[in-house]
Amino acid sequence: MNKVIKKNIIFSLLMIIIILLVFNKNLFRLNKKSSKNFNINENTKGSLLSSLKKTKSISEEKEKYNQDLIIINNQQEWNQKQSFILGITDNKEGITNIEKILRSYYENINSYDSDIVKIFEDNNQICHEKISKNNENIKEIKNKISYLDKKITITGIEKKILNEQIQNQKQELSNKKQELLELKQFSFKMNILDGMKEELYRLGENKEKIITNLLKQTKTRRELIKEKKKLEKDNVINKKKQEKIQKFLQLIGLIKEKNIENFNNILLNTYQLNL
Question: Which keywords describe this protein according to UniProt (predicted)?
């Protein structure tokens, strides 16, 4: 009985040992397989991530390319519209009523400013020509006055000399009368006196001519001075006109700048572009 029990115990122990050995072997294989599968999964995951990154990079580049292409197309389209609006070209391809309205508005701005500016510039040119012409006339008048002043001076000297001659002739005639009173030859006496009187008369006539000439020269000089002052006054008026014209032109320039600024704001709001 004891032997049978002992054999059964030994057999049971052997079975337990065999089972443990088999279990350990299977456990080792399972761990090895699990480790191998883990390595495979890690490699697969790495490849997948790399592929995803590459795909994302390609997608981003494609998106950037598409965006750049859109920008280029928009810029080309805007350049074409801008050229039409500003009147650089008459090509109406891709042009809408908006561009036509904007072009008309831009043309009106420039047309109005150009017409007004031309009017003022023409008036300014007229004033400039008048001033130039007046300056030429003033210069000529000054030369005439200078010449007349010299002539008047000479005539005045001639008048003074003639006055002295007349006074001398009168004195000589008076003295001669006293001398001839004692002479008995009446005819001879009268001939001498008549000759002296004729000379005195001739000197008187010359004096009248000189005085007349002097008055004429003086009158001409006064008229020239009057004309000179008139031209100078006209120049002052024209220069004031030019100053006003310049102020108007500056004002028109400021208004045009404001109109262009408003026009640019319209373009900016219409096309959302920074001009």
Answer: Coiled coil
